[in-house]
Amino acid sequence: MGNDSFIRFSYVLLMGFGFPIMRYMSIHFDTLNNNAVRFLSGGLLFVFICILKYRTELLKLLREPSIILYLLLLAIFMTGNMYFFINGLKYTSALAGSIFGIMSMPLAVIMAAIFFQDEREKVKQKSFYIGSVLSVIGSLIFVIYSNKTGGGNDFITGSLFLGTAIFIQSIQNLFVKKVAKKLNAIVISASTATLSGLVYLLLASNTGVIYQLQDVSSGLLIGLIFAGMYGMLTGMLFAFYIVQKQGVVVFNIIQLTVPLSTAFIGYFTLGETISIYQGFGAAIVIVGCVISLRKKSNGD
């Protein structure tokens, strides 16, 4: 369980850096170009790792072609998810993007419990509901007091984008859990990121926005490439690994703590301020997550 806890902590910390990075890049790049470069750079990195260390995993795709269909569907969901998510970040903030993840929790937990027996077992304890309710309340307090400075129409528009992304993500995680029973998380990440990147590249080419990259400095473009690698390693590989090893329910509880690290890091990198009320909400989130996760570990 020590390793599981380390993975959870690492995911929360790394995602805390990830949201400010995505927010910064969303301001400087068109969404299609942004996602095309990020997904392809991260996806090709994963493909390289798979060729070196996971060739036997790739053979499974030849033996079970049905897996390819699931990977294609997963890539489609990821493409839609990130299109709406990056647009949402552009109109709101890094903190708002991370906090909106709480909206997916009830839907994701319900859907996971409907389709998977092991997930149903995880939501039978009262402590899970107590901890989850506390976490949601704390996160909502965070939302309410983090948007005092946001522009009205822009924030509403961004919220609609983020809400759509979260809905797609809740469905996407079910496919991740399904495929994760047969493939290693890094193979899933490699195919999903690369396929999504190719879709975005095609869309950017057809719409002509890809030519905007000619006007971008080489330093900023290189930064986007490395941001893509970082984002795929943390936001995709870590997320897929947690869903694979610990389940959809645990993953969604962990998501509730990401806004805390995002707020702390966003304060120093983007100047996004934190109020005393947000600190109060953060404390509630932490208590709720500890209650939910600790009981879940004892019941495993």
From TrEMBL:
Keyword vocabulary terms for this entry: Cell membrane, Membrane, Transmembrane, Transmembrane helix
Pfam family, one: EamA
Subcellular location: Cell membrane
InterPro entries per UniProt: AA-Vitamin_Transporters, EamA_dom, EmrE-like
EamA domain location: 11-143, 158-293
Transmembrane segments: 7-25, 37-55, 67-86, 92-116, 128-146, 158-176, 183-204, 216-242, 249-268, 274-293
GO CC annotation: plasma membrane
Membrane topology: Multi-pass membrane protein
Protein's recorded name: EamA domain-containing membrane protein RarD
Annotated source species: Bisgaardia hudsonensis
